[in-house]
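[Q] Does anyone have a clean structure-token version of this?
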Amino acid sequence: MSVKSCEKIENSKVVLTIEVGPEEFEAAVNKAYYKMRGRINVPGFRTGKAPRKIIEQHYGSEVFYEEAVNIVLPDAYEAAVKEQNLTTVGYPQVELDNVGKDGVTFTCTVAVYPEVKLGQYKGLEAPRAEVKVLAADVNARLKEMADRNSRLVSVERAVKKGDTADIDFEGFDNGVPFEGGKGENFDLEIGSGSFVPGFEDQLIGMQAGEEKDIDITFPENYTPELAGKPVVFHVKVNEVKVKEVPALDDEFAKDVSEFDTLKELKADLKKKITEERTKAAQRAFEDVLMDKVAEGIEADIPQEMIDAQAENMLNNLKQQLASQGLTFEQYTQFAGGEEKVKAEAAEPALRQVRMDLAVEAIKKAENLECSDEEIEAEMKKIADQYNMDLENVRKYLRAEDVKDQLLREKVIRVVADSAVAVAPAEESEKKEETEEKTEE
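[A] Here you go.
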């Protein structure tokens, strides 16, 4: 094999002209003969027993050329790519230039990893919110904890908004029960909006043991068989329950945490909320910075890279849908069709490709490396975080993936550590308003 020419063209593509000599091609033709002879019939010979020369005399000397090209092409292409030190993207488009006893020549046009020119990636400016945690924030978190530890208790009174009603119900369309319209001992929180609009409001005022018919008209955007239809639900209230929320006191703190007093619990919650918001503000700051870096690169990005990224995104979506018991086909029906979903993936795919190119370029510019010790430490950290055995982490998590993530984090630190944080627009406006009032 020899590379006759290697020409770079637009859109980060390369045209390779590859020549396979007569000896190498002859070996491939012979392999083709042994592979095909069992499928070729020659008068006077049992199937698979005819010599190569007899078959070529009967069917022509080119009978094995197509299969021989298929045999020789992959290795020749791979060797040419390696010789030219190319990082290819996707599969090549192949054109056969000539083929014969003197060998074969073919042209491969393939997309390659583009050359990337970095824009500014140090000293960038981005907004970062000031982290504040007020007493109201702590109290809201305490209320969430109290709600999680609440219980439903039965009451002897009529249903009110906010109550939970244990109900039996059955829906009828012109007197005929319809599929999915029946339930027994269903706990319905009144005002939650869980049922069809108008259903929950008509339960208000009912007592335990009371039954009545409720008139409902389904929304126009409901399932086709019921959309816009007036129906009747026969409902029975079995029980009326209210949420009993524990008092926020020292006993509550002891029950839900390792602390003995509510004051200690509040201090711990404030610390945790501060840490959460600080991390969130930093992530948002870094996201804006990295978006700027990605936008600032110059690269002739081949369409194949964008298409491959879009395909990855769609495959991830399919996996997410499958975990929720949905199919991609079901999703596309609600999202406007498969073509629309695929078209909408193009823009985020391009953004991700630009981001990946920027990250790789910064790795190279900063000579960033990741040691085996760092990879091992990260795997141990993951094992501890998820309470897993380290060997199991190694089994399910590739060291190369961990390395890529660690290098990506190093790139982000290079960008973020040199960046300038400014107040978000809304904070700046409030500060200006305060200063104006002070001057007045």
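[Q] Thanks! Anything notable?
[A] The chain has three domains: 2-113, 151-244, 260-430.
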